[in-house]
Design goal:
By secondary structure, this protein is an alpha/beta fold. It has two domains: 10-229, Alanine racemase (TIM Barrel), CATH 3.20.20.10; 248-374, Lyase, Ornithine Decarboxylase, Chain A, domain 1 (Beta Barrel). It has helices at 10-23, 34-39, 42-51, 64-73, 88-97, 106-113, 140-150, 173-197, 208-213, 348-354, 359-364, and strands at 4-8, 28-32, 58-61, 79-81, 99-103, 123-128, 156-161, 203-204, 221-222, 248-260, 265-266, 272-273, 278-283, 300-305, 308-315, 323-326, 338-342, 371-374. The radius of gyration is 24 Å and the shape is elongated. The two termini are 18 Å apart.
Length: 375
Amino acid sequence: MERAWANIDLAALRHNLSRVRELCPAAQIIAVVKADAYGHGVVPCAAALRSAKTATSGFAVATMDEALGLRKAEPDLPIQCLSGFRDQHELRTCCQLGLQPVLHDASQLRLLRDSRIEPGQRLVAWLKLNTGMNRLGLSADACLAAGCELGRREQIEVRLMSHLAWADELDEPQSAEFTRAQLASFGHLRASLAAELGASVPASMASSAGIFCLPESHCEYVRPGVMLYGSSSLAGRSAAELGLRPVMTLRSRLLAVREVKAGEAVGYGAAWRFPRDTRMGVVSIGYADGYPRSAAQGTPVLVASGARRVRCKLIGRVSMDMITVDLGELEDVGPGSEVTLWGDGLDADEVAAHAGTIAYELFVRVTARVTKVHL
């Protein structure tokens, strides 16, 4: 028996992709599979997305190493590299393997300006405009100048992109105002570049939050990320409310069940004392497996009891290899009983909230000690 494992539901992944198509009927879809497909396993997830009824126009990854690894498994679909290239060697690799770099810095523009693209090769280059995120991105002036220069080179196709910084709380006036300013800045630059080149420029602005809330941000390409994996990108809205299905279900087993008396303590620092006589379960998972050490008292888990999965609460501190839970009145459980930490029946966003983090982090922190089973 596995002590801890994660079931990866590829049918749920394909369903979530179909939700993107429902929300963006006209846009092409670039599926974001960075960070090992948000911890879900990039090769099987990319294969599942590619084989779905909903067409995927390409994938997006964060780094050149991720792009190269994915290209071995996916030899022909476009791969967008969100950090772009760092040197001439990586630029040549982009041209040879059909990788699409994102250009966000003057040093990259200089490398491309001084480079020669081999006959028969083409490069799709995404110019990233900084519209307010203020991480990576070119200023409006630099982006317009680069677009005009590169757009006139026959072997380069210029596309434009930016990234929404605060589109998950549009009910908040400040969020709405900030996002409107981002969209206006992007639209103005896009119109200016099209006027200079005498042709429209394909563009991408929306990731998961924009896909749900901002049809005006969909442009020609959308970049769904965490929504593909069944997590909500919107504050105050659950994944189920958004029509998403959980893809990762993290499970473990009870190692032991103990009878404890009122007043007894459990775990490091005696951080929890039992208010009543009860039964306690020890679960074979901990922070070395990726379960968050920051998970607070009361974080929910589901314990299998016959045909039911019963909600129980985390008690005591999370240890490296185990957690403890209050089993209450559950009688028909014992060593080997399954415990669900998040996923099917227990929203990862809810668990993340108890741990003071987001579901993205839960997913990517699952370690190699946990067996991933792709279903």
